[in-house]
């Protein structure tokens, strides 16, 4: 009898997982295809910000990594309601803000610094994570407080997919992608160095009004294949959590895979 119940349970679980994958996969997803430069991505971000004009504050999560940099270089030339925008990090490596590994350092050099210098945005609209070596838990709590003082969910999350399909610091089949904390989480054994990081949680990213994942460059082909496959789950390919949001989108230059 016990055997029959567990068989049934397994069957129902498998069916639910399959249905949720199909539902998520069939949700309308915008696809931005890149042929020459990343300006279509900057235009997508501009459109979404314009859709949210009614709001007093618009919260944008930015990723670390190289793919986002040319996009932000385009975006900073655009006329936007800059003073309403609040930027948080989708994830950060637990290093000082001027360390070469810091995601904030790269974003500051290529994006924030010139916006501040031109008077478009105040430093208070930029929300870097401050790592505290001796009390990392307090540092994480401070960042969650900082986020909650501005909003309860991201308006726009922009994420860069890694070669393995990770986004932010949520990695395939890793405790980080199973953690359903509401805001940010700490990651102490990330498979991608450096191992100690903080990350927006799966739950927080899934609550985004708009969510865009970048798959740029040949190195992201396998990740894009995994993302598009109806047979993979969010645990296999964390980038797929984008499909659980109200308005999912991807951008890629690997257009042949889409056919
Ligand atoms: O801190 C990190 O490592 C990142 O936030 C990570 O999630 C990154 O965004 C992707 O790995 C894409 O990186 P690239 O754009 O450099 O490929």
UniProtKB/TrEMBL annotation:
EC numbers, comma separated: 3.1.1.31
Function recorded in the entry: Hydrolysis of 6-phosphogluconolactone to 6-phosphogluconate.
Domain Glucosamine/galactosamine-6-phosphate isomerase: 41-244
Species of the source: Rarispira pelagica
CDD domains with a match to the protein in the record: 6PGL
Name used for this protein in its record: 6-phosphogluconolactonase
Domain of life: Bacteria
Enzymatic class: hydrolase
Family assignment from sequence similarity: Belongs to the glucosamine/galactosamine-6-phosphate isomerase family. 6-phosphogluconolactonase subfamily.
Keyword Kinase: no
GO function term, MF aspect, one: 6-phosphogluconolactonase activity
Alphabetized InterPro entries for the sequence: 6-phosphogluconolactonase_DevB, 6PGL, Glc/Gal-6P_isomerase, NagB/RpiA_transferase-like
Lineage: Bacteria, Pseudomonadati, Spirochaetota, Spirochaetia, Winmispirales
NCBIfam families linked: pgl (TIGR01198)
UniProt KW keywords: Hydrolase
Pathway stated in the Swiss-Prot or TrEMBL entry: Carbohydrate degradation; pentose phosphate pathway; D-ribulose 5-phosphate from D-glucose 6-phosphate (oxidative stage): step 2/3
Catalytic activity as recorded in UniProt: 6-phospho-D-glucono-1,5-lactone + H2O = 6-phospho-D-gluconate + H(+)
């Amino acid at each position: 009898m016990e055997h029959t119940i567990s068989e049934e349970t397994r069957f129902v679980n498998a069916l639910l997982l399959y249905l949720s994958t199909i539902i998520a996969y069939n949700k309308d997803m915008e696809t931005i295809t890149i042929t020459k430069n990343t300006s279509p991505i900057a235009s997508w971000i501009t459109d979404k910000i314009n859709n949210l004009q009614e709001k007093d504050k618009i919260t944008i999560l930015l990723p670390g990594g190289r793919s986002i940099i040319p996009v932000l270089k385009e975006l900073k030339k655009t006329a936007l309601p800059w003073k309403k925008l609040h930027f948080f990090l989708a994830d950060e490596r637990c290093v000082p803000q001027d360390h070469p590994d810091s995601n904030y350092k790269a974003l500051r050099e290529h994006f924030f610094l010139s916006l501040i210098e031109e008077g478009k945005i105040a430093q208070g609209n930029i929300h870097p994570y401050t790592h505290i070596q001796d009390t990392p838990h307090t540092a994480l709590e401070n960042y969650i407080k900082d986020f909650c003082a501005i909003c309860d969910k991201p308006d726009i999350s922009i994420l860069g997919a890694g070669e393995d399909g990770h986004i932010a610091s949520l990695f395939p089949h890793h405790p980080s992608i199973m953690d359903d904390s509401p805001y940010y989480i700490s990651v102490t054994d990330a498979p991608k160095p450096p191992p100690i990081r903080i990350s927006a949680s799966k739950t927080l990213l899934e609550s985004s009004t708009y969510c865009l994942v970048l798959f740029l460059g040949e190195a992201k082909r396998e990740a894009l294949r995994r993302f598009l496959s109806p047979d993979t789950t969010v645990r296999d390919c964390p980038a797929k959590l984008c499909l659980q949001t109200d308005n999912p989108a991807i951008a890629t230059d690997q257009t042949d895979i889409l056919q």
